[in-house]
Amino acid sequence: MAWWLLILGGCGDEPLARPWPAASTAETVVIDTGGSGDTADPDDTGGVVDTGGTVDTGSTADTGPVPLVGPVLYPDDRVQSPITGWVASELQRVAGTGTGQVDVFMKVGASSTVSSSTLACYAGDRVDLDRYHELLAHTWRFHLDGDAAGDTPYDRSTLAAKSGKTAAWVIDGSPSPLEDEIAAIDPSVAVIHYGTNDMGMGSTYESAMPGFYEAMAELLDGLIDDGIVPVVTGISHRGDREAADLWAETYNAVIRGMAQVRQVPFIDLHLAMDPLDDHGLASDGLHLNGYAEGDCVLTPEGLEHGYPMRNLIVLQALDRVAGALWEGDDPPDSAGALLGGEGSPARPFVIDDLPFADGRDTRDSAHRNLDAYSGCDSTADESGPELSYRFSLARETALRLVVLDQGSTDIDVHLLDETGSEAGCLARDDRAIAGTLAAGDYRVVLDSWVDSGGDVRAGEYLFVIQPCEPGDEDCATRL
């Protein structure tokens, strides 16, 4: 059985100067996240060691100051999203506007978050960090000393999680469950896990996605406005329904994309569970499986199970955030992939790798070159501002292209041939395009629809391209 050793450093050039007293434990606890010099494992390559030998997280600690270059793309081959100097500065900016306790995080989610198998065991007497002790023990104790209304953040029965609920539930009401939990424990960080239940909130998995996106966007932006750093967790595989599993990676890509747009941490639970038997799922095919010796027993045997693996990667994410915010560690990632191009017809944004996600605002675009996509027999008025992308395929590939927006914004997705012209339109939709493309060069235009009254529906969007899973009949049509 393959299992992964995740060696991850801290981040941040200087500790965040907070305008309030730190929690008492913060003055005495030193968080040591290891960095590239750690020798805890003889097989350490600085990233993920998968004995199957296919995925590398590529995290490498820098030995000097890291330039603040710009927002980075979040690749799909890392369990932990990159924390570069730029990302660290964004996290510090968010936390600098808040007043939360530095050693308290809140749990936000549904049944797997409510489960006593998630994190709560870190407050018990069956904790074995094994080879991760040197890297993570200080971070574990740091939060163990946090006061979450009389409990630790680990075993606190959060008001912001309930079985069967969705991202829309946690922000609903006045006060909402989210607001109740913030008021109760005054956290500085929120660990969030939604998506699985949200997939079922429509007549199809595609139709459920816009509502999920709107709720998650409101949730994340609300936390950021309150000075609370979101740590966003992706969804795991779906062993309960084959059709749902075919969409799981698309939902995961959307969640990753929402974190990327905001440059906040993302934990790829789906990727972390890939090497495990049954992808770390319990017999119901929906929840994770546990380890009889304890779900905070992070031995090789323990990490062959879903909950111990999840508990490890969440603690690592908290460690990386602490390094960025409170400890002044060097960023674990010296550089990240940046998006090339400018979004114009002459210099479209360059998609170098798939899956891909990007978020923009068409109101910021000066380009109105394409108005009516004749190649797709469309009469829709797309004379609003647009942004262009290009990508190349080396082989025939089945893809799903998704655009998501909020409120009155209406951004449509258009797949074009290499000419990038209206006549070269291959497919278009208000929300998603799925199909199989031959090898070649392509353009994608995200265009603002104009309604019959002349109102330009420009605004913010999230754009995702996700390769389809084998056997996904939605993607069988040749475009």
Explained architecture:
Mean pLDDT is 88; it is low at 1-64. This protein has two domains: 4-327, Rossmann fold, CATH 3.40.50; 349-475, Jelly Rolls, CATH 2.60.120. Strand 6 (229-233), helix 7 (242-262) and strand 7 (266-267) form a beta-alpha-beta unit. Helix 6 runs parallel beside helix 7 (242-262). The chain has nine helices and 17 strands. The chain starts with a strand and ends in a 12-residue tail after the last strand. The longest helix is centred in the middle third of the chain and has 22 residues, at 306-327. By secondary structure, the protein is α/β, with parallel strands linked by helices. Strands 9-11-16-13-14 form a five-stranded mixed beta sheet, with no helix packed on it. The chain has helices at residues 85-95, 111-114, 133-144, 167-170, 177-185, 205-225, 242-262, 269-273, 306-327, and strands at 4-6, 48-50, 101-109, 127-128, 187-193, 229-233, 266-267, 296-297, 349-350, 356-361, 386-393, 397-404, 411-416, 425-429, 432-437, 440-448, 460-467.
